[in-house]
Amino acid sequence: MIAVLMMMGLLAQTPYVRAGGAEPYAPPPVRPFEPGESFGQEAATQAGPAPVRVQPLTQPETLDRFGNGYSPGPQPVDSAYQQAVAAAEARADAMAGPLDGGWLVMEGARARGRLVLSDPGGDRPVEGAFSATEGTGRAVAVTGRRDGDHAELSVGGRPVRLDRAGDGWRGVWSGAPVILQRGF
Fold it and tell me: Which of these, 161, 20, 174, lies nearest to 112 by C-alpha position?
């Protein structure tokens, strides 16, 4: 989620956003949690009595009544929702390619800039934005393709060739060797 917000921030300064991406919008392949009409009304499937829902307050309560238990535990509906969100996030992450996310571009010991990529995996193109650490900080569009452990990107019209190296990527950018490290 943070990477998506960062990419939106990087792209907000460029005409690339106004022109649109290379592909038309399609709904996400992993739907968000959408409970049915009877969700939460089914009987609990746990051993023992069903948990009591917290009733709305009709009069002031003192802290002594709670007996050091000021917060009720999670309700089955809350737990099911959290599990569904975690499962949807795991499915979305499993479908993403290895270049997906935020990267710090290092040229030797010097940070060259920040790169945010969307790698949907398969034959689909890699897209994103690059923002240099020096200069105006203006973002430029990134497009390209990844084939297994090799990627060819175009960063502002300049070719960048990358090969996977452990947790990161190594390559040549404008004739200089670079390393892509996860995060910013």
Answer: 174
Whole-prediction pTM value? Answer: 0.54
- For 8, phi and psi rounded to 5 degrees? -65, -40
CA 103, 107, 112: angle at the middle one, nearest 5?
55
> Residue 99, Cα to own-chain centre: how many angstroms?
12
pLDDT digit string, tens, across residues 8-58: 665 555 544 445 556 777 777 777 777 777 777 766 565 666 666 677 778
Burial 4-39 (b: 16+ CB within 10 A, else e): eebbeebbeebebeeeeeeeeeeeeeeeeeeeeeee
Q: Is 46 exposed, middle or buried (0-12, 13-18, 19+ CB in 10 A)?
A: exposed
Q: Please give the Cα distance from 168 to 179 (Å, whole number).
A: 7
Query: Which of 172, 15, 12, 1 has its CA nearest to residue 102?
Result: 1
